Amino acid sequence: MKIAVRYYTKTGNTKRLAEAVAEAVGAEALPISTPITEPVDILFLGNSYYAFSIDPEVRDFVKSLNKDMVGRIVNFGSAAMLNSTYKKVKAEADKVGIPMDEREFHCKGEFKGLHKGKPDESDLKAAAAFARKIVE
Residue 90 contacts by C-beta under 8 Å, 6 or more apart in sequence? Predict the structure, then answer.
């Protein structure tokens, strides 16, 4: 099974989650500026809410994906206020014909003093366990 991990972060929280996910599944965590150039069965995509939506860079990244290169997308991320970005990412994935796994990982992320220290070690362990379960 071929796996890729891509993430978008402004604070570093999602990068930390991406690194935990990648280590758990034997992949490399790379920013979304790194395109998918080889077919993958699973793309773990890390992102968060910014101004009540996914960042335009995340939207553009998903739009750039080729349905013949990506089997499915697994969403993960963190946010200080809002929860899952699943519906926003799925809307973009649907436009390019790439299925989304219904399972996702989400935890609180530190932002301007809120949720200090999050994601913490237990969140990183939970993200890794989630990723391993996806690829079982």
Answer: 75, 100
Distance (Å, whole) CA 124 – CA 7: 15
The C-alpha angle with vertex 119 and arms to 62 and 50, in degrees rounded to 5, equals 40
Query: What value does the mean pLDDT take over residues 116-126?
Result: 85
The verdict on whether omega for the bond into residue 119 sits within 30 degrees of 0, i.e. cis, is yes
- Indicate whether this model's pTM tops 0.85: yes
Per-residue H/E/C for the chain: CCEEEEECCCCCHHHHHHHHHHHHHCCCEEECCCCCCCCEEEEEEEECEECCEECHHHHHHHHHCCCCCEEEEEEEEEECCCCCCHHHHHHHHHHHCCCEEEEEEEEECCECCECCCCCCHHHHHHHHHHHHHHHC
Residue with tokens 């349905």: 67
Nearest CA to 46 out of 35, 30, 68, 60 is that of 30
Tokens for 47?
Answer: 């992102």
Could you tell me what percent of the chain has a pLDDT over 90? 71
